[in-house]
Input
Amino acid sequence: MKHKGLLFLCILMIFALTTGISFAQEKQPPFNVAFSNVWEGNTWGVQSKAEFYAEVDRQKEAGLVGEVYYANADYSAEKQVSDLEDLLNRTVDILILQPVNPPAVSSVIQKFYEKGTVVIPCVSPLETDKYTASLMSDDKEFGSIGAQFIVEKLGGKGNIVALDGMDGITVAINRWVGAKAVFDQYPDIKILGKTFADWDYAKGKVAMENFLAAFPNIDGVWASGGSMTQGAIEAFLEAGRPLIPMSGEDNNGFLKLWKENMGKDKFDAVGCSMPTYFFAEGLKLGLDIVQGKVEIGKDVPKDQILHVYTITGENLDQFVRPDLPDSFWANTHMSEEQIKALFPGE
Output
């Protein structure tokens, strides 16, 4: 019986190691948090980081968050892997991340998971199942909403150009997959050209200026989001070309130009939203999990997809903020006080 008991204990320990289940004493607050960010190279990234830290402050006041470790990968998969390996040497209870290159981080993510860290990828999926839960954006839906809007505005026939995001990034890839699936259903929709403009206002404007110089007849503009549509509208206006249907995101610069030019020429627009509170929501979910308040697979699914908010001419006034700069992103959970702190003097 003694040998059988020892054998059972050995089997139990092996099971715990292979499944990532910890039999250690339940953790107590405050919990240490790490956030591995893709980059801060645009205003969405800056506001997302600020929104994350606003949630950190709320949870610190509640006594739930202790140390916070932050790493900016600057869109380098190699740097993100290095950052995560450094974090392995620290006590991290909750890891929030957006992977630059999902396959590249799989091995180091598995190490966190096997240590008992609550691992929550946000925005972009991992290519391993060794994580606790995820909060994803439906980027294919994002792309298809803009494409369907343009197709309907053009009556299923016309010439369009496409402003894509950043080459090789999962978000951009999936948004174009969603858009292309719509466009492919309409043989009379002709894609004159597609170029990467990195979701950037200035690059989007230059790209549109090049399109306008190359093509005398453009009927619609599909954009992968970011600040590119703002640049596209300005390029049309400065070239003296009639405005046409365009898609974009909830960037305030785009929303303000949309409102100012509503009803002009053939112009109409649609805006989708990848909210800046992704990582803040990931933190809240991680805290619920580590405290045992929610059970993954029972109370909430392992993989959650955040709803794609759609801005139209009918609800534009609910999102546009004429009193705030172009760099503000409309779909936020930050308080007015926090928004004013992020955009002082506005």
Residues 43-61 form the longest helix (19 residues). The first strand starts at residue 31 and ends at 37. Residues 100 and 169 are 7 Å apart (CA to CA). The chain has eleven helices and twelve strands.
